[in-house]
Every structure is written in structure tokens, then in C-alpha cells.
């Protein structure tokens, strides 16, 4: 059975909030809550691929401690920028 669009967004949101490390939960969860529903199919597929990466790699890429894979670099910059702005407001 094919996953519905609604179920896909719900699954991806849950995976964004339940990463395994609290730090990545706090970066990806709020971003997913705000942005997932409005993403194109292409960007949803890319985000789904991003969710397959391990937290240690994601955190290093987001913090600029390691170079992100080219196919994810722009997306990770967008997510990191959102997290920085969000956390600066607190």
C-alpha cells in the first residue's frame, strides 16, 4: 500500500522529533513542524534522504565542522539558519 501524503508528513515529522540525540530533535523537529507541509515533492524526497543520515554527521555538517554532501549542503544551510534564528529569539 502506498503511503499517503498526510502519512508521509506525519512520519517525517515524527522522525524529525525522535532522532536519538536531543540536539538534533531540537534542530529538525521545529523546522519540520513549520516547513514540511509546504515542501515540493522533490524537497520532501531530499528531506527523507536527510533523515536517513546519522545524527553525528548531521550535527557536524550543521555546525560547519565537516563538509556536508553536495546534495544536502544547501538544504542543511537552510535548516541551520532557521535553527539559529529560532534559538536566538529565546
Write a concise keyword list for the protein shown above:
90 residues, mainly alpha, DNA polymerase, domain 1, 5 helices
Describe the structure in your own words.
With 90 residues, this protein is mostly helical. It has a single domain (5-88), classed as Orthogonal Bundle (DNA polymerase, domain 1). It has five helices and no strands.
Mean pLDDT across every amino acid position: 94
Q: How helix-rich are the residues, as a percent range?
A: over 70%
Q: Could you name the CATH topology?
A: DNA polymerase, domain 1
Query: How many beta-strand elements?
Result: 0
C-alpha Rg (nearest Å):
13 Å
Sequence of secondary-structure elements = HHHHH
Number of domains: 1
Strand proportion: under 5%
CATH superfamily: Flavinator of succinate dehydrogenase
Q: Uncertain segments of ≥5 residues (pLDDT<50)?
A: none
| The CATH class | Mainly Alpha
Given the structure, what is the number of helices?
5
Biggest beta sheet attributes: none
Query: At CATH's second level, what is the architecture?
Result: Orthogonal Bundle
The class by helix and strand makeup works out as: mainly alpha
The 3D shape can be described as globular
Distance between the termini: 43 Å
